[in-house]
Amino acid sequence: MSEKNKPRSVACPTCNKPVPWSEASPWRPFCSERCRLIDLGEWLGEEKRIAGEPLPPTPEEWTD
Ligand SMILES: [Zn+2]
After folding, report:
1. Of the residues 1, 19, 25, 57, which has the fewest C-beta atoms closer than 10 A?
2. Domains defined for the chain, CATH in brackets
3. 8 A C-beta contact, residue 32 and residue 24
4. What are residue 9's DSSP bridge partners?
5. pTM of the entire predicted model
6. Cis ω for the linkage preceding 20 (within 30 of 0)
7. How many Å apart are CA 15 and CA 57, to the nearest integer?
8. Ligand 1 mean position, distance from CA 30 (Å)
9. Cα–ligand 1 centroid distance for 64 (angstroms)
10. What's the 12 CA to ligand 1 centre distance in angstroms?
11. Most distant CA pair in the chain, distance
12. Cross-strand pairs, 18
């Protein structure tokens, strides 16, 4: 394995900015704490929406 020459970086899931995959990036795979919190907030918001507003079953999904 010769990973030494490989640029190890990932795209921030929130803003798509390249993030170096190293100890220098404590928030990886996010580029910053802000992006991490944004992503977490969206995820939690989605969970809350699902829990708070139960959707009625879709008749099309029913099989008799
Ligand atoms: Zn970011």
Report:
1. 1
2. 9-54 (3.30.50.10)
3. no
4. 20
5. 0.56
6. no
7. 35
8. 5
9. 47
10. 5
11. 59
12. 11
Write the CA distances from 4 to 1, 19, 54, integer angstroms: 9, 17, 50
Ligand 1 center–CA 55 separation, angstroms: 32
The pLDDT tens digits for 16-62 are 999 999 999 999 999 999 999 999 887 777 665 656 666 677 767 66
Q: In 10 A of CB 39, how many CB atoms?
A: 16
16 CA distance to ligand 1 middle (Å): 6
Kindly state the DSSP code that residue 7 receives in the 8-state scheme: -
Residue indicated by tokens 């995820």? 43
Residues bordering ligand 1, an ion, CB closer than 5 Å: 12, 14-15, 17, 31, 35
Query: Ligand 1: distance of its center to the CA of 63 in Å?
Result: 44
